[in-house]
Fold:
Amino acid sequence: MAAFTPGRPAAEAWDDFYRQSPRLWSGRPNARLVEVAEDLAAGRALDLGCGEGGDAVWLAGRGWTVTAVDVATTALARTQELAAERGVAVTTEQHDLTATLPSGSFDLVSACFLQSPLEWDRGALLRRVATAVEPGGLLLVVDHGAVRPPWGWHDEGEVPTARQLRASVGLDDWEDVRVDDPEREATGPDGQVGTVSDAVVLLRRPA
Structure:
């Protein structure tokens, strides 16, 4: 993707990515987050790489106190716009997660499709942010899986399975609540429909 040239600052690259269209995503929450959180009691949630806010706004609509984080100011502005449209409150914070993290502790930390063409050590990031999960709380990581859609930058290169993703996260003393590679139907940015899979890792911090 043209925005993601080597050495380019992440905030600049991702802002250019979002500015290519007035809205890139549907505004709906990710299916795997819904599966995990629909039966949970509301608490404090952290949405890493919130994009245009579909997940954060859905959680807020179910009573969660949500902090939504992204490196792109354009994404954060769109999250606030969606929250206003839906009549909910979401706190947004800009962070380059390789350098800074939000403060506080959370019952649920969600990293849905927190993937990037830019080089970074995401496993190290997830281990750092795991310290913000409350004892007994959950860390959800969802990646694009091996069954690939016919669109997007994420359809190139080797794709880790959920078990491989779990190994990269570490946190060996945490409980494996869910580690699997389910399939679903997805719609691309130009209306394409296809079958894709996700690598899902859901971990519970020891109480």
User: Anything to note?
Assistant: The beta strands are 44-48, 65-70, 91-94, 106-112, 133-144, 175-180, 183-187, 193-204. The helical segments are 10-19, 31-37, 54-61, 73-86, 122-129, 162-169.
